[in-house]
Amino acid sequence: MRVEKERVKLALVRMKGRLRSSKNPGGEEPTAEYKAKMRALYQRYQELKAKLEQSTIPAKQTQKQPRSASQDGFREDFAISELIREKRALQIALHQFQHEFELRYGRPISNAKDRAPMEKEYQRYQELRLIVKAGAGAQAS
Questions:
Q1: Can you state the percent helix, strand and coil of the chain, rounding each to 5?
Q2: pTM > 0.90
Q3: Hey, is 94 helix, strand or coil?
Q4: What letter would DSSP give residue 28?
Q5: Which parts of the chain register pLDDT below 70?
Q6: Please, what is the Cα angle at 74 between 73 and 77, to 5 degrees?
Q7: Which DSSP state fits 19?
Q8: What is the distance, to the nearest Å, from the Cα of residue 51 to the centroid of all Cα atoms in its chain?
């Protein structure tokens, strides 16, 4: 997966380098098709990155034993990291849904009716976002 991630990243860098910008005034104008290809690559890159993070998090957690923290504190940290992983997986799924919606209807999601097929996932994502935010704030203090 790491090799594929690096290849996708390299392809993105090359594609971005071809576009017109202040640094490259002779570059191509981005077309809708070109943007769609880049979006798909960005999405694939994010998916690979998330999968690699998920596969390395458990290994890091087993190595990082709390020195003076209680077992309850360790369990809390572990629970929060599980929630973070669930939130990230939902985030990827929701971004995929939004992208497919835009491709199908030619516009971004704009109301509750558009979100209806994934409403439970949107609600769970919001819950997780608040829980993780609160957990991070509690750990910082």
A1: 80, 0, 20
A2: no
A3: helix
A4: B
A5: 20-24, 56-78, 136-141
A6: 90
A7: B
A8: 10
